[in-house]
Amino acid sequence: MTSTDAAASELLAAFEGHLRHERGLSGNTVRAYLGDLVNLGTHLGVDQGGDLDAALTAVTLADLRAWLAAMDGDGLSRTTLARRGAAARAFYAWAADADRILPNPALRLASARPASVLPTVLSAGDVETLLDVARTRADDGDPIHLRDWAAVELLYATGMRVGELAGVDLRDVDLDERLVRVVGKGDKERVVPFGIPAQRAVIEWLERGRPTLVAPQTDAALLLGRRGQRVDQRQVREAVHELCRLAGVDEVAPHALRHTAATHLLTGGSDLRSVQEVLGHASLATTQRYTHVSAERLRAAYHLAHPRA
């Protein structure tokens, strides 16, 4: 079964509208949830072109448990199992509230606990090296190098996601106050401060880099690609990987700069609520995982430095 099956399902089409317009979930999350439910249909024996709605309507709690158990037996990650369970619970809760499927078969479906993996975090020294390399490389005046310098400075300064950075427009940046408006998951907006180094990089980009890339089709995007279009996430990821190689630090994904920013804020004394606001987390529990990273670093430093550790 494919995404075509989801599109042909009246139930999933209505559920998609609920997720997008009532819950305000991101496009990626919506697509993942719909794909999970199509996968459930495959498990239930719905072949290509089969009646997915009938299968989803007739499902039982035992069916759902067997579905998750089969995936666990196939070696799928705990994170995937947790998301698929969440997709089923969300779908059947919505269907029951809308009187489309009664009773709710997922009401007692246990939640698979995702694997607890500490995020990758760069040391302050590695970040300093990475940003120095980005700044030095931009001295050649290449507009892409200037853009990449501004990108990594903003990613570390604000803890933005890569997709959020790509979506920033010129009007979203207040260089005098050093603030940027960010549109996060579920189209939720937040205003995040950034420091003088990021301000300097953005100014250099706006004065020396961006004007050389502006094209007739250029929109209001802050960061541009070489042809004048809005920068995409792939270009930012490639830039971070290249700068890591040049800096001689462990190659990381751009998201690691978000993890690093959060961890360094907490290590520096910021409170959890403030970091939650900066990152745009809906739940404080999501932010709390960075306290574990800080604790692990503190423990390592203690064992290295304390004579009676």
Task: Report on this structure.
- Helices cover 60% and strands 4% of the residues.
- It is mainly α.
- The protein folds into two domains: 3-97; 124-258, Intergrase catalytic core (hpI Integrase, Chain A, Orthogonal Bundle).
- A hairpin with a 5-residue loop joins β2 (179-183) and β3.
- It starts with a helix and ends with a helix.
- The mean pLDDT is 87.
What is the makeup of the main sheet? 3 strands, antiparallel
Helix content: 55-70%
Q: How many beta-strand runs?
A: 3
Q: In DSSP terms, counting alpha (H) and pi (I) runs of 4 or more, how many helices?
A: 14
Q: Tell me the CATH topology of the largest domain.
A: hpI Integrase, Chain A
Strand order of the largest sheet: 1-2-3
What's the pLDDT, averaged over the residues?
A: 87
* Distance, first to last CA: 57 Å
Low-pLDDT sequence parts = none
CATH H-level superfamily of the largest domain: Intergrase catalytic core
Look at the helices and sheets and give the structural class.
Answer: mainly alpha
CATH secondary-structure class of the largest domain: Mainly Alpha
Number of domains: 2
Shape: globular
**Strand fraction band?**
under 5%
Write the CATH architecture name of the largest domain: Orthogonal Bundle
Spatial extent as radius of gyration: 23 Å
